[in-house]
Amino acid sequence: MSHILIVEDEAIIRTALRKLLERHRYKISEAGSVREATTKFRITDMDLIISDLRLPGAPGTDLLKLAGDVPVLIMTSYASLRSAVDSMRMGAADYIAKPFDHDEMLATVRRVIGKAEQNRAAGAAAADSKAEGRAIAGMIGDSPVMRDLYARIHKVAPTDATVLVHGETGTGKELVARAIHEESKRNGKPLISVNCAAIPETLIEAELFGHEKGAFTGAQTAREGLIAAADGGTLFLDEIGELPLEAQARLLRVLQEGEVRPIGAIESRKVNVRLVAATHRNLRQLSAERKFREDLYYRINVVQMTLPPLRERGKDVLSISESLLKKFCGKINRPTLKLSPEAIQAVTTYTWPGNVRELENAIQRAVILTEDSDEIDHRTLDIDLDLVPIEEADPERRPRSNSLHADPREDLSLEDYFARFVLEHQETMSETELAKKLGVSRKCLWERRQKLGIPRKKAKRVAEA
Fold first, then answer.
1. Is the Cβ–Cβ distance between 47 and 3 less than 8 Å?
2. What is the pLDDT of residues 233-275, one digit of tens each?
3. 53: three-class secondary structure by DSSP
4. How far apart are CA 268 and CA 249, in angstroms?
5. Strand pairing partners for 162?
6. pLDDT digits (tens, 9 = 90+) for 11-46
7. Which of 73, 199, 201, 242 is deepest in the core (most CB within 10 A)?
8. Mean pLDDT of 105-114
9. How many other C-beta atoms are found inside a 10 Å radius of the C-beta of residue 385?
10. Under a CB-based contact definition with an 8 Å cutoff, are residues 390 and 86 in contact?
11. CA gap 99, 41 in Å, rounded
C-alpha cells in the first residue's frame, strides 16, 4: 500500500482528496502547511507528496528540497501555471490544475508513483551495470522508456542479430539503426539506409539487388545494388512493410543464404550484411492478410525494439525542444531563444502526431518567425491548442469562496467543488472569466458543464445590456 502525504490548507479539498485516495487503497497522511508536514511526518519515508503550490508560510515548492527522492505532485489553481512550470524545473514530478475530477487525479497519482518505482528500478539496474543505461549520441531523452531503449541497444549492437524497430512516423527510427551500427563491430564498414516507401515498385529490386547491363529497358550499364554496397556493414530498410512481395522473396534469400543475385545475372554473389528493419505498420497483421511474407516476418523478427511516441516521453519533449532551439538559432547566428510559459504549456500538452519530426519543424518555424523578442510565443509555434491565458497569480488576490470554508462538509467531492464554484459565480462572471479562475480552457469548462449537468447561463450584466 503506497503512503501519500497531502499538504493542503483548504480543509474541503484535503478531506475530499483523502477520501478519494483511501477508497482506492492508498494510505493517507495530512498536513495544512510545509511546517506541519515536516514536524509531524518523516517525509522521506513517503511514496508520494501531493502539495498545494501556495500555502500559509513556506510555499509547496520548499518540499522539493526536503523530499529527497520522494516525488512531489504540485497542485495549482487559477492562473498560476507559470509557477507550476517553474516548480517542475525545480524538480516536481508533475503538476495538476484545480479543480480536477476524480479520474484525472487518480490517473496522475498512479502515473507519478509508477514512474518513481520505474526510476528506482532503473537506478538499481544501473548500479549493477553502469554501461547499460548510458545515453546514445544523437538521441535525446532521459525518460524510463528511453533508458530501456538505450540499454537494449547496448546489449544487441555488439551481436549480428537482425533488429526490427517499431515506431510511429517521425520518432527517429534511423537514429536507432545508426546507434546499433556505431556500437557494433561493423562500424568501420558502411551503413546503407534505404526508405522502401520512397522508391517506385518498378525500381526497388534494381536498387536493392543491382542489375546487369541490358537486364531491362534502360539498363545501359551494370550496376551494383545497395545490398552489395553494404557488404561487411549494416543495411537499414526503413518502412519495410512497403516492400513489394517479389522483392521480399529476394530479400529472404539474402538473409537465409547470405548471397545476392543482381537482376539479369546468372551467378549469385556472397554478401555479409546485418539487417536493421523499421516500420510503423503491424507486420504480423499484414502477414495474416497475405500482404507481407510470413517467412520473412519471422526471419527479421529476431530482436524487437519499440520507439515510444513523443507524447509518452514526459519531460523529454522539453529537453528535445531546447536542443532544437540551440541548433536552429546557431544556424542563423542569433542568440538562443527560450520558450515562453505559454509555449511550454503548448509543447507539453500537444499530442505531436508527427512526433520529433513535427516538433523539429515547429521549432525551426518559430525560430525563423520570432522577431524582437528572446522568447518564442505559443502562437508562433502554430499548433492547434485551446490554451488558457497565463498570468502571474497574485497570492493576495487568490480567490477563496467563503461559503465553501463556512461549510466544509466531509462528503463534498472535487466535482462538487467545481459545480458549486460555477453555480455561485456564473451569474456575475462570463465564461472566459470562469475558465480563467478555474484554471481551465473554455472548452474544458463546457465539457465539465455537460458532464455535471450544469446549464450555461448568461451573466446578468450581459442580459441587462
1. yes
2. 999 999 999 999 999 999 999 999 999 888 888 888 899 999 9
3. coil
4. 15
5. none
6. 888 888 899 899 888 999 999 999 999 889 888 889
7. 73
8. 88
9. 15
10. no
11. 26
Grid coordinates standing for 227?
A: 545490398
Q: Residue 416 has what pLDDT?
A: 65
The C-alpha cell that represents 140 in the structure block? 535525446
Could you give the CA distance from residue 422 to residue 449 in angstroms, rounded to a whole number?
A: 9
Per residue in 125-138, is it b (16+ CB within 10 Å) or e — as a string? eeeeeeebbeebee
CA-based radius of gyration for the chain? 28
Straight-line distance from the first to the last Cα atom of the chain, in angstroms, rounded to the nearest whole number? 57
Other CB atoms within 10 A of residue 167 CB: 19
Cα dist from 339 to 192, 323, 354, 366, 389, whole Å: 37, 12, 20, 10, 15
Cell of 237: 530498410
* Residue 338 Cα distances to 39, 206, 376, angstroms: 39, 48, 6
Residue type, 360: E
Residue 32, C-alpha cell as written in the block: 495544512
CA atoms of 93 and 25, how far apart (whole Å)? 21
Statement: residue 452 has pLDDT above 80:
no
DSSP character at residue 263: B
Residue pair 223/211 in contact by the 8 Å Cβ criterion? yes
Q: Tell me which amino acid residue 438 is.
A: L
Write down the pLDDT at residue 428. 82
Mean pLDDT, all residues of the chain: 81
In this structure, the chain runs to a length of 465
Nearest alpha-carbon partner for 426 in 414, 416, 417, 435: 435
